[in-house]
């Protein structure tokens, strides 16, 4: 009986194994065959390192910055003609007083007194006013205004005598023996000195000179940046030093740069913050001595704010005692300035006005011409 049981169990086991094998085989036959795996093309053999993909996108290259175009300054010869209307009677008390004389119905004592008061308050000064009134009274009869053309001719001639037509008003910017000319620019802060230097660089460039600017006003933080801006507009290099540094050292370096670069002119800005004559004398004297180790100073320009009147004359006296001024620049002559200051400042210093500032534009600095100046004053508004 036991033996029969084990035979039965063996038979069941065989049946189960056969059934399992049959099921597995039938399932394998039912599945579709797997798709063939595509072969990758072989890389072409190449000597050396493998080549980059031929069609790789090129790297983007940043465009080089384009330098701003340099400005072309206006030729100096045409400037006073363009700017003369700014000296006309519409804005200038000096011109109004002169034209008032020509418009008077009768030149009686009251008319002459009025003219005298106008001329004095127009910064002409007492001495020049007396000279002009005396000459006009001598030349014009009591009823001479009935001939306005003659009166205008007489007035023009007498004004030209006061302003002076014989003075050499050219800028001495030519150095000797291949050295650059050196222009030292002095003046009190607030007169427009640094702006005048920027405009002067444009005058010199327009005349065909190569220029170097020296930012030797190291005590005023904005002065060097201001000059840098002016210079960059016309391609003029600026030599500067550290803020609060030695002004004489900056001036020396600028002249040295001018010599090395073959520049025609070096223009030197100076500090105007010094309030005592002794300090001013020491500073400007040192700058001049140090510069002249390399090249002689050929021009010393004093910038005076034309709106300051008698205060401007007082400043001129101090600078004249400190440094050998060779020319005067009158800035802001188009504003509230009265125009008459041209005469007394020349007499005070014994040197001519060489340049005048007649506006805020970059080319509103003009060479001073006595006849053009007088004609502008007598021009009808």
Give an overview of the whole structure.
This protein is α/β, with parallel strands linked by helices and 381 residues long. It is built from 13 helices and 8 strands. An 8-stranded mixed sheet has the order 3-2-4-1-5-6-7-8, with helices on both faces. Strand 7 and strand 8 form a beta hairpin. Helix 11 runs parallel beside helix 12. The longest helix has 29 residues.
Question: How much strand content do the residues show?
Answer: 5-15%
Radius of gyration: 44 Å
Instruction: Count the beta strands.
Output: 8
Low-pLDDT sequence parts: 42-54
- Largest pleated sheet: 8 strands, mixed
The residue fraction in helices comes out at 40-55%
Q: How many individual helices?
A: 13
Order of secondary-structure elements: HHHHHHEHEHEHEHEHEHEEH
How do the strands line up in the largest sheet? 3-2-4-1-5-6-7-8
- Distance from N terminus to C terminus (CA atoms, Å) equals 150 Å
Shape descriptor reads elongated
Mean pLDDT: 82
Q: Give the structural class.
A: alpha/beta
What's the oligomerization state? Answer: single chain
SSE blueprint:
Layout: H1 2-30, H2 79-83, H3 93-103, H4 109-121, H5 126-139, H6 148-163, E1 181-186, H7 193-206, E2 211-215, H8 221-234, E3 238-240, H9 247-261, E4 265-269, H10 277-291, E5 299-305, H11 310-322, E6 327-331, H12 342-349, E7 353-357, E8 365-367, H13 370-377
Parallel strand pairs: 1-4, 1-5, 2-3, 2-4, 5-6, 6-7
Antiparallel strand pairs: 7-8
Helix pairs in contact: 3-4, 4-5, 5-6, 6-13, 7-8, 9-10, 10-11, 11-12
């Amino acid at each position: 009986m036991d033996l029969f049981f084990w035979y039965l169990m063996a038979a069941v086991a065989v049946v189960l194994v056969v059934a399992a094998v049959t099921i597995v085989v039938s399932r394998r036959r039912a599945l579709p065959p797997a798709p063939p795996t595509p072969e990758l093309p072989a890389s072409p053999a190449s000597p050396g390192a493998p080549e980059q993909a031929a069609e790789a996108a090129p790297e983007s290259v940043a465009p080089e910055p384009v330098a701003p175009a340099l400005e072309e300054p206006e030729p100096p010869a045409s400037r006073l003609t363009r700017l003369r209307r700014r000296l006309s009677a519409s804005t200038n008390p000096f011109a109004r007083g002169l034209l008032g004389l020509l418009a008077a119905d009768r030149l009686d004592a009251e008319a002459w007194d009025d003219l005298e008061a106008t001329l004095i308050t127009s910064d002409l000064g007492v001495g020049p006013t007396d000279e002009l009134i005396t000459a006009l009274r001598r030349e014009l009869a009591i009823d001479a205004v009935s001939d306005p053309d003659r009166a205008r001719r007489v007035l023009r001639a007498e004004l030209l005598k006061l302003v002076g037509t014989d003075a050499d008003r050219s800028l001495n910017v030519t150095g000797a023996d291949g050295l650059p000319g050196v222009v030292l620019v002095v003046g009190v802060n607030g007169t427009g000195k640094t702006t005048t230097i920027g405009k002067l660089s444009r005058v010199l460039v327009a005349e065909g000179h190569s220029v170097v600017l020296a930012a030797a006003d190291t005590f005023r933080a904005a002065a060097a940046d201001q000059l840098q801006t002016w210079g960059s507009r016309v391609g003029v290099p600026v030599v500067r030093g550290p803020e609060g540094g030695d002004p004489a050292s900056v001036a020396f370096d600028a002249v040295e740069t001018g010599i090395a670069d073959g520049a025609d002119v070096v223009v030197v800005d100076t500090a105007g913050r010094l309030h005592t004559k002794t300090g001013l004398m020491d500073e400007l004297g040192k700058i001049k001595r140090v510069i002249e180790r390399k090249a002689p100073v050929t021009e010393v320009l004093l910038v005076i704010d034309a709106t300051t009147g008698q205060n401007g004359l007082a400043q001129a006296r101090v600078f004249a005692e400190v440094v050998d001024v060779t020319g005067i620049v009158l800035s802001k002559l188009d504003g509230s300035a009265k125009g008459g200051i041209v005469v007394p400042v020349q007499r005070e210093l014994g040197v001519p006005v060489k340049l005048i500032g007649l506006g805020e534009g970059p080319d509103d600095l003009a060479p001073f011409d006595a006849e053009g100046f007088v004609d502008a004053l007598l021009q009808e508004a």
